[in-house]
Amino acid sequence: MRDTAEYRAEEKNDFTVGDMRGSILRIAVPMIMAQLVNVLYNIVDRVYLGHMEGDGRLALTGVGVAFPLITIINAFANLCGSGGAPLCSIERGRGNLKKAEETMGNSLVLLLLLGVVLTAAGYLFKTPLLYLFGASDQTIAYADGYLQIYLAGNIFVMLGLGMNPFIQSQGFAKTGMLTVVIGALLNLILDPVFIYGFGWGVEGAALATILSQMVSAVWVLAFLCGKKAILKLRLSALRPRTELMKQILFLGLSGFTQSVTNSLVQIFCNASLQFYGGDLYVGAMTVIYSIREVVQMPLQGFTQGAQPVLGYNYGAKRYGRVREGIRFVTFVSLAFASFAWLILMLFPGQLIRLFNGEEELLEVGILSLRIHFVLFVFMAFQYAGQNIFVSLGKAKQAVFFSLFRKVILGVPLILLLPHLWNLGIYGVLAAEPVTNIIGGLACYLTMLYLVGRELKAGERAQKG
Fold it and tell me: Which of 51, 204, 259, 406 is deepest in the core (most CB within 10 A)?
């Protein structure tokens, strides 16, 4: 039986009452902060490594080559979290709390199983994969050394990333933010100690990351098992249910394919840059992708933060509020993307120097950054459209547009454009803005048509 405190918490986090914009911001702002702080786990590593004396640029490049593989591994954590958490919100909106808890418990089981399998596979195939991803004989030692340590703590990384969305989906956004703040601050402290103090280099950076993620994972599980949570991790909810796991994985495919396809594009991009320009251009792209993580995280955090509110109202059949939420998500996403684009175009050199101050890297990095981000504004449409699909449980559409932008458009363009008009390096770089405008508009306009039609039908049924 649920106690009185649990009922009060549930009533407090009823998203069908109050101002819709306020409800979204209450969840989204802490999530944005959490996403930004979460970026620090890997960004801080690269900043410290890039400024190492002597071989800083090679260490930075090596970790950059390893990062697509880490992103793919982490995508499996998001597969469970981004699939299970929206389902929890929808079931909670319907008043089916038992089903919501079973969803959370089955997501935990999936995370544990996937964590073990991915760790073993990572150790078996990491070296040949790193060469395939763009490593050279000069950078392989740094990439391999980082992964060797990182994989040892992979299960903690997956638990922290995969279960934190279940805190946020219940309306405890500040608690979810603390999950990553605690880990990121610990990482910020341990990085210089391990990298410089003990002289452990890339291995020290990896160790600092996994120890910090372990603390975050313990924090998440302790909260979800504690008294404050509306939905709790209970032993009865850990019983595997095949159909429920299928639903979790199916809905989570959107976030999963977005992460995996981003990594896939980065892999092809690194390999092509290695072919046309060598380690210097791979290093520059490592910096650009690091900057990209920072500027896209507020977009991702805001649109994902809106998911619990939109999903809850959708489950409760409050279609007018869902429509209001979609308009607000679109406006804020476009406003932020425009502001970020302006900063990127005006201050590329200052941003690149945060990671490495070598003039050679700076020279190729500034032009590469401006080409890469020239149409960044259209990413707002991609994030808004895709996350609205997810929040309403429309997995097929969300997955398709993840694949469309990166696999159908991105990878072929990276391979094709360098051969047109002898573009070479510039053709590789130009693939990103082309996919931004085509993929972003296709996703958002389709969402407007399909979701708008369904909401209107639901409103007519309620009136009739």
Answer: 204
64-123 pLDDT per residue, tens: 778 778 888 888 888 888 788 878 877 887 778 888 888 888 999 999 999 999 999 999
- Cα separation, 282 vs 266, in Å, equals 10
**Residue 10 scores a pLDDT above 50:** no
Task: Please report, rounded to a whole number, the percentage of residues in the chain having pLDDT higher than 70.
Answer: 93
pLDDT at 5: 45
128: number of Cβ within 10 Å: 10
- Residue 201 gets the label, from left (phi > 0), alpha (psi -120 to 50) or beta, of left
Question: For the purposes of burial, counting CB atoms within 10 Å of the CB of 37, is it exposed (0-12), middle (13-18) or buried (19 or more)?
Answer: buried
% helix / strand / coil in the chain, to the nearest 5? 85, 0, 15
Count CA atoms closer than 13 A to 432's CA, side-chain side.
25
Question: What pLDDT is recorded for position 337?
Answer: 94
Q: Which two tokens stand for residue 214?
A: 């372990």
Residue with tokens 């089955």: 106
Strand ranges for 315-428 from DSSP E = none
**Beta carbons within 8 Å of 167's beta carbon, 6+ residues apart:** 175, 176, 179, 220, 223, 224, 229
Token output for 138: 């000069």
- pLDDT (tens digit per residue) in 422-434: 888 888 888 889 9
Distance CA(44)–CA(58), nearest Å, equals 16
- Report the percentage of the chain scoring pLDDT > 90: 20
Report residue 327 as tokens. Answer: 């308009």
Q: What is the model's pTM? A: 0.68
Phi, psi of 99 (to 5 degrees): -65, -35
pLDDT digits over 201-211, tens only? 888 888 988 99
The residues, any chain, with a CB within 8 Å of residue 44's CB and separated by 6 or more, are 184, 187, 188, 191
What pLDDT was estimated at residue 331? Answer: 93
Long-range contacts at 181-185 (CB < 8 A, ≥ 24 apart): 181/33, 181/34, 181/37, 182/215, 182/216, 182/219, 183/41, 183/212, 183/213, 183/215, 183/216, 183/219, 184/37, 184/38, 184/40, 184/41, 184/44, 184/212
- What digits encode the pLDDT tens for the residues 333-387? 999 999 999 999 999 988 888 877 778 888 888 888 999 999 999 999 999 998 8
Extract the tokens encoding 225: 């098992």
